[in-house]
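Structure (tokenized):
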């Protein structure tokens, strides 16, 4: 799946946990305003697979920030859609301030993933795009990685049905099904799961996303189907379902090449590379 250059950097997201039994009526309603995403069109059940590898510190700071509703919290993750050698892996920083989401995303060549997750500063040859904003994203990702001593913790997978506004990506509605998760401690973008644990079993996650104002027809959607918001994120809920104790140890050192610590000089270099306004020091 190619990188979606239409993806806005800032938007609002509202989540609802719904029963599969009403999704066909919701789909009929949504299809009056939006069209099926290009990646979902032609796919079985109108859905495509989404994989995420979440990074966190050994004390699960990112998880606890999310569970406690800390303001201006963020997640570090890899997002990918298959395991083909020539397809990209997207390094993402997803920051939340209330309902506002600010996402920085950079496509990386798959063979560079282990190097970048081991703490190496990004080089232009690692990236799919030479645009400065993508290099800045990777530099900031690298800095946050080292500030947290973050490393891979959780592999998450689900099937996504996505609907988008016809001429842009300013409005988006998604249905995420069969969400599952398992601990994963390696610097690899894999799709196979060994012992996945269901997250939100027998439920569908409905997300409505917009960049400027809440569309009027969203109000009718929420009212007609009596939708109730919920705040659990896939990563946080996945950790809770699997069991936080499975991530608080060093028993998996054999599965992971330890992240090298930055020397003071290298850390200062990383700070200088990243615009000061884009860094949230931990």
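Design, position by position:
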């Amino acid at each position: 799946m190619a990188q979606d250059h239409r993806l806005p950097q800032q938007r609002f997201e509202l989540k609802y946990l719904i029963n599969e039994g009403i999704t066909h009526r919701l789909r009929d309603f949504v299809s009056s305003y939006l069209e099926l995403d290009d990646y979902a069109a032609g796919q079985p059940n109108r859905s495509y697979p989404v994989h995420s590898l979440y990074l966190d510190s050994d004390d699960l700071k990112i998880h606890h920030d999310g569970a406690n509703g800390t303001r201006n919290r963020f997640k570090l993750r890899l997002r990918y859609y298959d395991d083909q050698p020539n397809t990209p892996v997207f390094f993402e920083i997803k920051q939340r301030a209330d309902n506002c989401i600010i996402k920085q995303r950079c496509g990386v060549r798959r063979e560079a993933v282990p190097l970048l997750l081991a703490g190496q500063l990004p080089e232009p040859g690692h990236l799919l795009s030479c645009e400065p904003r993508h290099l800045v994203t990777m530099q900031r990702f690298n800095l946050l990685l080292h500030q947290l001593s973050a490393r891979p913790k959780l592999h998450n997978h689900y099937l996504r049905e996505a609907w988008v506004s016809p001429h842009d990506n300013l409005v988006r509605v998604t249905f995420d099904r069969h969400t599952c998760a398992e601990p994963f401690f390696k610097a690899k973008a894999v799709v196979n799961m060994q012992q996945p644990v269901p997250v939100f079993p027998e439920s569908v996650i409905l997300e409505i996303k917009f960049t400027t104002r809440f569309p009027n027809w969203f109000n009718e959607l929420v009212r007609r189907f009596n939708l109730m918001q919920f705040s659990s994120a896939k990563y946080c809920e996945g950790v809770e379902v699997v069991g936080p104790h499975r991530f608080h140890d060093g028993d998996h050192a054999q599965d992971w090449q330890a992240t090298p610590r930055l020397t003071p000089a290298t850390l200062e270099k990383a700070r200088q590379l990243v615009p000061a306004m884009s860094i949230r020091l931990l």
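Reviewer-requested clarification: Strands lie at 10-19, 35-36, 48-56, 73-80, 89-97, 100-108, 151-164, 171-183, 197-198, 203-210. The radius of gyration is 19 Å.
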